[in-house]
Amino acid sequence: MTNTASVQEPVTPFLVKLFLRLRGILRIRQDLEDPKQVRAAIEADADFTGANLWILGLATLVASLGLNMNSIPVIIGAMLISPLMGPINALGYSVATYDLALLRRALKNLLFATVMGLAMSALYFWISPISTERSELLARTSPSFYDVLIAFFGGAAGIIAVMTRRKGNVIPGVAIATALIPPLCTAGYGLATAKFHFFFGALYLFLINCVFIAFSASLLSRLLHFPLVETIPPERRRKINRLVGGILALTALPSLYLGYRLILKERFLQASDAYVRSVSVWGSSFLLQHEISTEKRTVKLIYAGSPLSDADRDRLRSRAADFGIDPDAVEVRNAVTLTELRSLEEHLHGQQQKLQTELLTLRQLLVLREHQLDSLRRLPEQSRQLLQELRAFLPTISSASYFPGTVASLVGRDSVQLQPRTYLILELTQPLSPAQRRMLHQWVQTRLGQEVVLLTETIKPPSR
Predict the structure, then answer these.
(1) Domain tally, the chain
(2) Which pLDDT value is given to residue 6?
(3) pTM, whole model, 2 decimals?
């Protein structure tokens, strides 16, 4: 007994010291701003006039552009410049301190900011030629209870930053985490495109953020004992608390259901992935493609290789039960067999060879056409040069016409044979002698490099 007491006696003072030490570390009252300064700052941020109004409009346009172009950095920038946190913090603070005048003003300003944001974003998306449903838009249409937690903890960090002297980079981080302006603009997109599931889903996410940011601000304002502005009778205080509790419950309950559905989808997706990996090869068949639908909770398997028998399909479906998947929700299909794959491969190989041959023929034809076009381009210069060369040993020549052509000849009854010919038409002032004709014919064939050259001569008297 004596030994046990001597061991236990030092434990209690140690735990007390540890508790006091932790309480001293966690206390934030020494960091609080003067309550009057905090109230003045919250009131200033609650109003949407002048600069705040312009900043809200610009933040709405920037967020709409970011959502439209699916640009995460632009969306983050819009979150940082949006002044929507002001009236929401004022709502929570006014409920905690029973400042009914500030409460009415904050509600009016928040409603005005919401309507303005919806109108401006809807107008932008109505004008914008791009109306594709990008991932950043889709991400803000299915809120869950996790968004409630994000709004609550983010709002708590935000109101602590407002109320203390050590703000640091908390407020920009809270603006990004709670993401007020993107869901409001997504709701505007739903209005502009008449996609009301976008509108209601995004507006619900915006409502979650507003309510639970305000709730965390109200809760911390009370825990930090900010002075009450008005003295309210206990019965009215209880009525206000019940009203706040009802709003919180009505806002959170749908998110609990949606969060439960999200958890079920994730579990089904994980189980389906594990099941698909386990049946990727079945006998001499292999899984070619699979589709998992978390909405319908179905799995579709498409196999290639050897055909699956009815018994194979039954075993594949029954194996899904080991992963918690309903066997009736599994569809098993044959895609192609190995023989069909080989036949298809041979067919594709033959088509490839045929296409390569046709491509080579087209390339050769293209080269030939390029040569022909090049020859036609050089014809004037070649004709001039040929005339000058002919005049050197044929003084009686007055002009020369040189051009390539084609001769069509009948072969049999129905066939036509095409042969290239080069035509050379000469105008002379005197007829050629047989020797001159032979020499000219031989020179022209050597000079032009053609096997057959047709020489046509006409006598043109010399001009006087």
Answers:
(1) 3
(2) 47
(3) 0.62
Return d(Cα 299, Cα 330) in angstroms, integer. 5
List pLDDT tens digits, range 321-345: 999 899 899 998 887 655 666 676 7
Q: Where are the beta strands (DSSP E) in 170-324?
A: 281-282, 285-293, 298-305
- Angle (CA) 71-77-78 rounded to 5° is 90
Give yes or no: residues 227 and 284 share one domain. Answer: no
The string of DSSP codes covering 25-36 is HH--GGGBPPHH
Residues 6+ apart with CB under 8 A from 353: none
What average pLDDT does range 204-231 have in this prediction?
86
Burial (0-12, 13-18, 19+ Cβ within 10 Å), 9? exposed
Taking alpha carbons only, the member of 411, 414, 436 closest to residue 426 is: 436
Separation of alpha carbons 173 and 337, rounded Å: 56
Pairing of strands 285-293, 298-305: antiparallel
160, 219 in Cβ contact below 8 A?
A: no
Separation between Cα atoms, residue 439 and residue 228, nearest integer Å: 125
Tell me: do 300 and 183 sit in the same domain: no
pLDDT band at 7 (very low <50, low <70, confident <90, very high): very low
- Convert the pLDDT of each residue in 300-316 to its tens digit: 998 887 788 888 888 98
CATH at residue 44: 1.20.1080
**Residue 40 structure tokens:** 């003045």
Structure tokens at 217: 């601000």
